[in-house]
Amino acid sequence: MNDVLDFVSVRLDDENSELIILDQSKLPNDLIYHHYKSPEDIFNAIVTLQVRGAPAIGIAAAYGMYLDAKRHLLLRHDEFFQRFRQTKNYLASSRPTAVNLFWALNRMEGCLNEHKDQSRTEIIERLKEESENIRSEDEAVCLSIGEHALSLLKPGMGLLTHCNAGTLATAKYGTALAPIYLGQKRGYNFRVYADETRPLLQGARLTAWELQQVGIDVTLICDNMASIVMKQGHIDAVLVGCDRVAANGDTANKIGTSGVAVLAKHYGIPFYVCAPRSTIDIQTACGDDIEIELRKGEEISTTWYQKPMAPKGVKTYNPAFDVTDADLITAIITEKGIIYPPYNKSLKKLFEEGE
Ligand code: MRU
pTM of the full predicted structure? Predict the structure, then answer.
């Protein structure tokens, strides 16, 4: 058995100028790979959550930029640059909350600008390199987050996680699941509780599946059961990923995360956010400034059922993320180390040191 999930969610097939995406919306029942060439296909894959999870979205978008530039290699100079900007804006409009999307697109644009005076073939080569770097750096970042997070944990602990912040959501290892994979390899024998994560069931369909694939002890619970498992003493720590951390430490993650954090505080359980530096948005002052994606009501009423499970025409409200207040977060675990409150100071320092 492998130590970590052996499926890659996003892969570049440069020879065929395609992006290969493992369709996460069909897991765990069907293992389907799509081969995409155009920005429209990639946009659609992001919107419909075939590829999801903040880092994986960024990686897909970066590859999308490279493939589109490659397809337009022969455009006139000004048209080539205009097309690049249009594609960037288009992909940026696919989902609003995860900052990695904008971060990855900005990196691709930065690369273009840096090499703008070189030959077109040279530019395309550099864009390919940059997109590959974004992918491979994410793998290294996740591994490092995993090591730092593992230093906070002890063998045999019960861990609760929400949504999917695993291999499927990243290049490899995940963020919140990285310490679990590393711990498994080192005999920590964690007991993992996965919230099902209504309404799109990323916890049930993805986290439970990917952990089960490698033989990790995982128990699936409905979201509203987190309180009882905490009260019964099954949970020693909560580990979650995130889509955007504001400068003051407020953290947007999958809807339901903030409720778990409130419960964890009530029961005195540490609540850890695993965040690559690319997910920390120092330009966003606090959680109120983070745009929360609103998705269709059918995801609540109909999507997973043979028949609609809500009266026809009922009003729905379906925010895809919520913001966990910084004061509920015990620590933010990055690839550079573990960050403690007060976050406005510690996150600022993290960015100053990185520059
Ligand atoms: O809507 P999703 O499935 O893209 O939401 C994903 C999450 O909320 C994850 O926890 C987050 O992106 C971190 S992934 C390492």
Answer: 0.97
